[in-house]
Amino acid sequence: MDGSRRPEARWALAGTRRLGAVGVLLIFAAVLWMVVHHRGTPVIAVFVVWLLTALLVSVQFVASLYARPFGASPAKLAELDRLSVAVLVPCFNEEPSLLEESLRSIVEQSRAPTAISVIDDGSSIDYRWVEQRIRAEAAASGIRVHWRKTRNHGKRYALINAARQEPDIDIYMTVDSDSVLDRAAIEEGLKPFTDVRVQSVAGFLLVLNYSESWLSRMMELVIVSWGQFERSALSITGSVLVNSGACAFYRSEVIRENAANFLSETILGRPMSFSDDSLLTLFALERGRAVQQPTSFAFSRMPTSLRPHLVQQARWMRGAFVRGWWRFKYLSVGSVAYWVLALKWFQFFSNTVLAVVLLAALFTMTPGTVALFGAGWLAVQYAISSRYLALRRSDQSRRQRWGVYALVPVMVLWQVVILHQLRLYAYATFARTGWGSRTT
């Protein structure tokens, strides 16, 4: 992949607003349909839980419509230009060509970083030729490059080691070694920092290899829908709960002042090796606002086969469970983030109750009632995912975009049949703190 073929993305904002309006109508039409057609006492519990969940989703959806990319006046842009930026890239046995493309996408940014700090965390692969090429290209652009190979200590140590190479920087940016940045990712990602309250900025994640399998296409839909729905709603109040390591920005104090806690986190006496992104976001929330910049895009590889996909999902779910308790402990009870987290837990447990009641009442409900509930929930998911159609990727045709959106029923079935049960398993085994796919 060369620079001329590197994917880029943008939003058709007018389309986003129109699709958002259609989405709201779909949600409320589904709720109204449930009220009008509801019959029989055996499914009252199902109806109540479904109605509460649908109303919660509706509130989030409406809130997300007010989220807009952060802008900056010419005077503020001049201030941003004076900020020094170090990009932290932890690497472990990454495919050399992908690592090279990831680093080249950083070097070729429309707003160049001050430095790139790569930590090779004990890889068995020789990256010397990649290092030589990147050093030469970065030097031509006036970018400092630090490249260290260490023993395998894990991603957290790699991130802190990378930051220590540039101790006097203003902004740290994290980029995964399998992620390729849109050309304007840094330029766009810095704009929210014109607000002195902002402590971290989440970039917007897309799937680099979305076309390789149905799993990667489905994950493209899941990730974009989540970013445009839940995280957009949270961003309005500065309450984003988790950034994506593939593209995230932090004021340097967030990392420097919390380095010891970041490295020493344990659960039941065992070191935590994952959920690093959510912990850094929690540190940022304790200092101020955590927001999302939806125009700062990063394209990251996702698993294309079943086992790696399930391992990744289980790791994310365990991290979310553990981090939830930390958030309840350290976030202010009066903060929006605290109550959004409480609502998320309510939504999960209510959906679990819904699934159990549905199974128990399955033989007492008519086929029409079952179809009614299924169609209503599917309408909600179509609404949540509708703004995927406003995404414009340079490597995706209109037909391919609609092809991804057509996977909404598959996504719903996968979440209900597979991922919800996997989440219960992951929560029950939260003390398994290993990476799952990475040596530590």
Report a brief summary of the structure.
With 440 residues, the chain is an alpha/beta fold. It has 16 helices and 12 strands. A hairpin with a 2-residue loop joins strand 9 (266-267) and strand 10.
Mind sketching the topology for me?
Layout: E1 9-11, H1 13-37, H2 44-64, H3 74-81, E2 85-91, H4 96-107, E3 115-121, H5 128-140, E4 144-150, H6 155-164, E5 171-174, E6 179-181, H7 185-190, E7 198-207, H8 214-236, E8 248-251, H9 252-256, H10 259-264, E9 266-267, E10 270-271, H11 276-287, E11 289-300, H12 306-330, H13 336-361, H14 367-385, E12 391-393, H15 398-405, H16 408-428
Parallel strand pairs: 2-3, 2-5, 3-4, 7-11
Antiparallel strand pairs: 1-12, 5-8, 6-11, 7-8, 9-10
Helix pairs in contact: 1-2, 1-14, 2-8, 2-13, 2-14, 4-5, 11-12, 12-16
